[in-house]
Amino acid sequence: MTLRVAVIGATGRIGSEAVKAVEAAPDLELVATLDSRSKLETLVESGAQVAVELTHPDAVMRNIDFCVHNGIHVVTGTTGWDDIRLAELDHWLAGAPEIGVLIAPNFSIGAVLAMQFAQQAAKYFETVEVVELHHNNKADAPSGTATRTAQLIAAARDAAGLPRQSDPTTHGLEGARGADVDGVPVHSVRLRGLLAHQEVLLGDTGETLTIRHDSLHHSCFMPGILLGVRKVVAQPGLTLGLEHFLDL
Fold it and tell me: Residues in domain Dihydrodipicolinate reductase N-terminal (predicted)?
């Protein structure tokens, strides 16, 4: 069966690549491309079954609200999610039990694997920190990937009975030790020339382990986006993380 797909945010860096990827996929049909000036009603008029949403935290809730209430599945990589937003999305989906929404902090298969590796390693090391590096036009800090990575690490440490990390002896400028995400320090670098990069550094007595992933071109996100499009139609409700669509 050919899936009818729309791309919201089609003129952005990742959105324009998504347009090309959907057009090239033999089992998908690109039926609409939307930018910030487009009307969401175009999604209904085009008969889209799945919307790939790649916009901005300020727009994502309105876009997904429209899709869910019009029977359109959603695959989004837009960041800015918190408990309040997730609860609101859950409420919308409760009224549309057949609709699936995938929120993917990262569509890169390598990045998803790196997150999983970090989660596995977290319980074996006393200390762990996350450093994420992105281009200087990125809207949020920390990145959605870094936040999700830290949450997975913290959950693994909690499950293993390890205490939350603390750093009571360090003194200096406020913020120098990064943001605290569930007890995991997360440091954000914003630098022209970068795309998307992340390191997880784990340390214990006499050794360290570094898990690093580098996205060098926006095309690296396309296999994950296409996987999400194909899988979300058979996965009602909210799916948080592309790893749930992989055989891990």
Answer: 4-107
